[in-house]
Amino acid sequence: MTTTTYRGLQRNRLPATFHLEAGTETTYIRPVEPLSYIAIAITAYLVGSIPTGFLVAKAKGVDIRSVGSGNIGATNVFRILGKPAGVFVLVFDGLKGFAACAWFSDVVIKSFAVTPDDEVYLRLVAGLAVVIGHNFTCWLKFKGGKGIATSAGVLAALVPWALIIILSIWIILFILTRYVSLGSVAAAFTLPFATWLTTKNWTLTIVTGLMGALAIYKHRGNIQRLLSGTESRISFKRKGATS
Fold first, then answer.
1. 11 has which bridge partners?
2. Strand 9-13 with 2-6, pairing
3. 234, 198, 222, 232: which is closest to 83 by C-alpha?
4. The pTM is what?
5. Rounded to the nearest 5°, which phi and psi values hold at 170?
6. Residue 104: strand, helix, or coil
7. Tens-place pLDDT, residues 72-105
8. At the N or C end, where does the chain have fewer CB atoms within 10 A?
9. Residues facing residue 180 across a β-bridge
10. What are the CA-CA distances from residue 197 to residues 51, 107, 169, 207 (Å)?
């Protein structure tokens, strides 16, 4: 039995590593590792699956899935319910991503005594799981949002400088075109390149590339409308336009 101290709090725990000797060979087993990954994956998915836009609209007597674009994300909420509701959904969805990679991951890391070498991988699992939870929420028959705000929260926790780069791209394109979807697709495409430029880390680059690819996939309808010229620009007036 060993004693571990976290920020002044002392507790007892069993050794995280056990070894079995067979002849001249020693085998090391860390049973806490798979459990820690399972725990953070489930936790992050459930956090991400909270359908913020749907709940906010429901509180106002609106089924957001049946109006506008039918998407539960911040853009559709903004257009149908107005700026305050849209901003709230945007911030909360972003907070889900940040919380999964930062706060909830910290809890799992401490609870399972995760080694420093494994911390980054655990946070990456959390990032992927929370975005998947948002995009495919179990509470709405696995039909969720497009994951842009939640992905931004993940990036704020993992690769903040890459986030600044793609956020700048989004802002510039939005100001020039008023197309939220165009800025989102361009930012998603640029994400792995921005990650590599700011971190030189292949693992982070691959994972953010997967996140970007998922975001582009979720925007496939918007891409078709952009190419056909039928995509609607953002309006700061309340109306039920498609997105």
1. 4
2. antiparallel
3. 234
4. 0.80
5. -60, -45
6. helix
7. 999 999 989 999 999 999 999 999 999 999 999 9
8. N
9. none
10. 33, 30, 15, 14
